[in-house]
Specification:
It is a single chain. This protein has 143 residues and is mostly helical. It has one domain. The protein contains six helices and no strands. Helix 2 crosses helix 3 and helix 5 packs antiparallel against helix 6. It is globular. The protein starts with a helix and ends with a helix. The mean pLDDT is 78.
């Protein structure tokens, strides 16, 4: 309910809406780039990033599908074509996703090279940074 009121307020403020559209487009692009890497060369992407190898690509394909769905929802919301995910949803996904990876890295370390940890921590920082920018835009819309 509160998110719906915020979205309506954001629609009335042109400058904030432009900033929101840019953030949503950036977020969608990041998701699509990750999806393309996982789709085109899944094993090579996993190896290049130093992430743990698995015996199956099922979870990689599932993650790719989720990333694609999120990217489409973000793009729809950005373009005003339909009711997409919206900025509040993007913030929630980014905080939960990055938070989960951070907790996993701290509490349940895998046997992977240092490069894998560096890549995953960089992803955590990038996603949390995106969430912070999105949250800032949402708070500005509330003013």
């Amino acid at each position: 309910m509160a998110f719906a009121r915020r979205s309506r307020r954001m629609q009335h403020c042109g400058m904030d809406r432009q900033r929101t559209n840019r953030l949503l487009a950036l977020d969608a692009a990041i998701n699509l780039v990750l999806r393309l890497c996982l789709l085109v060369l899944p094993r090579a992407t996993i190896a290049a990033l130093g992430l743990p190898q698995t015996g199956t690509l099922f979870y990689v394909a599932l993650l790719g599908a989720v990333l694609t769905g999120i990217a489409i929802a973000l793009w729809l919301e950005r373009g005003g074509v339909g009711r997409g995910l919206g900025l509040p949803g993007a913030i929630a996904i980014n905080l939960l996703g990055a938070g989960t990876v951070a907790v996993w890295l701290v509490r349940d370390p895998f046997d992977m090279p240092l490069r894998g940890y560096v890549v995953l921590w960089a992803v955590v920082v990038l996603v949390l940074g995106t969430a912070a920018l999105e949250l800032r835009a949402l708070r500005r819309a509330d003013r």
